[in-house]
DNA sequence: CGCGTAACCTACTGGGAGTAAGTTACCCGG
DNA sequence: CCGGGTAACTTACTCCCAGTAGGTTACGCG
């Protein structure tokens, strides 16, 4: 590697497409994370790559395409991490626990950029929204699978609803965790698994004024 | 156009500031809801108001300011609706139930624009993010209050975490509900309250392989 | 009736997304 | 070593839209 010396100025290093794309995704993820999608400019991303703007368009088509590519890469990484974590589990509860820890750890390490993804989905075109939604679907499938194992007696609509609940709760929890440095990924995972397992019941008063007959009825 | 306009040419009605502002907010809420924040153009909003763009800037300062004003108005409305609903309740469970129904009903009726708010928070400036976050804080306060009543024995960190969980779950549930016409606001509320009350425990297998000693530990 | 002011306008600037068309460096077969 | 083909890269634009400067009209009111 004679010319691979890390010198930013003067000498422009010409890169292979694959390498340049990877670098662009790294830079884009960072810039999007710093300013948010809308405020990030393609010129800035190009400049930080040491390259001119049309290259970005050559490789990713549009600003939106660049975001989609970032999302897609993260999605793959997240899926990989969570699946690997869950594969090591034995009981359903353990699956849930390990999955949650993996999820919160992942977001913890990618916090800035991933928080952006969670809050800024529909940036411009439906394309982006679709990519983010695809990530959710992927996670949903995973969760729904766990739920089905966890609760084989639950009807489909309840599984679906609870999957959504868990998705939303996890995302909010992740966002909250990034703003609370004293809350570790394990803490977040524990809150989630505890809540999923029993809800509020551990804290209910021992003699609750809860006539089950007239309460908003049981899940059918 | 060839003069086929349904309204007479001199119809340019001059309005009081208050009335015009209200109209602008109505139109903006609709346009933002239709296209999303980023894709919505100030020119279109102005045109639909039958007014020119600088008027919008005169009254709201910026595109962002307009969004913030929309959010603020919706926030007040939502708070009003949920508080009124909860005031009529008797037991803590009833509070939760009524609050949830009110929340989902509100979003159901404002679906397009409110879904936009839920998914598109950090549009441009921190100002907008702040306004949306303020709405969340308001709701969080409400929820945390209910939780404290519901579960007086729960420690503060659990209350905080569970509040976030419920917030996130509700938002996701609301989004899901808008895409599922067969799910009513009451259905959504029922899923939520059931999950909050007991989590997954009703569906757990009667003889669960759950050694509590090594399981991710209980909420402290 | 005229005068102050608030509602409203036309016509512009500026910045960033996206593009057309040209230039340079690297690889590879003679 | 040498051309030439192609992939990496550039300059220099266009267009669209947020935001603005400054002027114009209509309404209330003394």
TrEMBL record, chains A, B:
Record keywords: DNA-binding, Transcription, Transcription regulation
Matching Pfam families: TetR_C_46, TetR_N
Entry-linked Gene3D superfamilies: Tetracycline Repressor, domain 2 (1.10.357.10)
DNA-binding region: 41-60
Residue span, HTH tetR-type domain: 18-78
PANTHER family given in the database record: HTH-TYPE TRANSCRIPTIONAL REGULATOR RUTR (PTHR30055), POSSIBLE TRANSCRIPTIONAL REGULATORY PROTEIN (PROBABLY TETR-FAMILY) (PTHR30055:SF158)
UniProt protein name: TetR/AcrR family transcriptional regulator
Source organism of the structure: Actinomadura chokoriensis
């Amino acid at each position: 590697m004679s010319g691979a010396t890390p010198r930013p100025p003067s000498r422009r290093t010409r890169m292979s497409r694959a390498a340049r794309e990877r670098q662009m995704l790294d830079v884009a993820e960072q810039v999007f994370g710093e300013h948010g999608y809308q405020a990030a400019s393609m010129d800035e991303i190009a400049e930080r790559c040491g390259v001119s703007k049309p290259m970005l368009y050559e490789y990713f088509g549009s600003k939106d395409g660049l975001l989609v590519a970032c999302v897609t890469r993260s999605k793959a990484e997240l899926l990989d991490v969570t699946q690997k974590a869950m594969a090591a589990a034995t009981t359903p509860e353990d699956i849930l626990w390990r999955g949650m820890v993996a999820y919160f750890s992942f977001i913890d390490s990618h916090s800035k950029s991933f928080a952006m993804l969670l809050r800024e989905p529909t940036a411009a075109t439906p394309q982006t929204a679709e990519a983010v939604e695809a990530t959710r679907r992927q996670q949903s499938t995973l969760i729904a699978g766990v739920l089905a194992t966890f609760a084989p007696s639950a009807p489909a609509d309840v599984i679906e609803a609870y999957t959504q609940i868990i998705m939303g709760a996890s995302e909010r929890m992740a966002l909250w965790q990034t703003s609370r440095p004293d809350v570790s990924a394990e803490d977040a995972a524990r809150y989630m698994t505890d809540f999923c397992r029993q809800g509020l019941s551990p804290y209910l008063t021992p003699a609750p004024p809860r006539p089950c007959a007239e309460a908003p009825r049981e899940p059918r």
